[in-house]
Amino acid sequence: MDLSETTLATLSHLESRLLRLEHLLYGHATPHPKYLPAGRDYAELLKIYNAHPALFDPPASSSPNPPPSLSPEAQRSIVLASASAYPTTASSLTSISDTPIPDAALSAHLAALLPRMKGVEATQMAQAAEIAELRARSEKLVRAWYEGGVMGYSDFVAGVEGRTQKVERAVRRAERARHEV
User: Fold this and answer.
1) pLDDT for 69
2) What whole-number distance in Å separates Cα of residue 42 and Cα of residue 36?
């Protein structure tokens, strides 16, 4: 297997892993081609490889030793501080791997309904605008009825009551004047 086949195989495996993670995290994955197109992308990868071959090499030291600058007490405190997260992380990773992949037909059915859902959304927005306009018109009508009808009638009643009070005062004065004479 030559370098280009190895590169293509590695990229294909990485792509499939990324798609699976994307699906597990977000519930959907955008379709990607199953191969690396020959041409520009492959040429760019080769140019990067030729310029920086160290990027494609595994790390020189695979020993699990911590950096020598940390004291054993500091290393112990780091490990103990993170110890409670290990079971939780392991459980989360297990639950992710146990999550079944939804049937593609269901996703395709939902994708086919998208134009219809957009139409319903547009209808709802138009109805909301119409309702807002009807509310504004209703408010104007109620305000006009209240100001013209109710307040006008109140003014009328207040005027009649004021005239009645004047007449009653005049009658009382006349009665007092008649009793005094």
Assistant:
1) 75
2) 7
